[in-house]
Amino acid sequence: MRSSVRSALSVASAAAILTCTSACASALFVPPVGPGEPAPGAAAAWAEATRVCGGVTTYKASLRVSGHIGGERLPTTIDIATGATATGIRLEGRAADRKIFLLAGTADEATLYLDDGHRSATGRPEDLTDALMGVKLGPGRWLALLTGCVAAPPDFISGARYGANLGVTTPGGRVFLARENGVWRNVHGEFDGLVVTYRRFSSAFPDEWRLKSEPGRDPSIELSVRVDDIASGQPIAPSVFTLALPDDVTPMTLDDLRQSGPLHRKGR
After folding, report:
1. Fewest beta carbons within 10 Å, which of 5, 22, 147, 220?
2. So what's the pLDDT on residue 260?
3. Over the chain, what is the mean pLDDT?
4. Which domains, from first to last, does the chain contain?
5. DSSP states of 194-226
6. Longest dimension (CA), the chain
């Protein structure tokens, strides 16, 4: 996030600290270890931290994604236009003004279309995104990640205190909360062998975050995500979550996608 020079530096430093209070706290967060201490107020803190994200019904944004998958760097930064609801998911990936992939569907079934060779695969969205990038993303989890809730569903099971921070256990993972600008905010989550850290908030939703695999997970993942053009609560037409495929499309299996997709991982 000479006396006159010292004064100017002091003012600049104070301004930087104040500016960084909300924007940089998440980037510096290190998850604590151990069982923690009893936290009677954890349920109320969790309700506060998820009050906005837990009520989101629709979400649209533009993402810029870079990093590594399976030890290989992505060939370029990927721009992803996304739309999400609790039951629908859409991801449209582009790089250098060229379409790479388009995935759309519901929690039960989605279709992935690859522009190179006009290939497509059909299955549950979790299976398609796992084959594509090594991360299982159904509509509920994707919406929770985008909005900062992390947990899907965001049901509270238990909480523990770690100094000034809280750790909350949910049915789908664990989330750590920090107090920022007088309110509780989710800053770090762990689920499915993955870790998400929210680095910057300029509104109720995160606009910069990192998704990284825990040690030993296969495939390894380290992705940086920057978010722009966030819109929530606006209607999304059902047609957004369907694909009209070209007539010359070539079907492919999930194994084909793992081995030869645009984000393929060698050795899988």
Report:
1. 5
2. 78
3. 87
4. 38-260 (2.50.20.10)
5. EEEEEEEESSSSEEEEEEEEPTT-SS-EEEEEE
6. 74
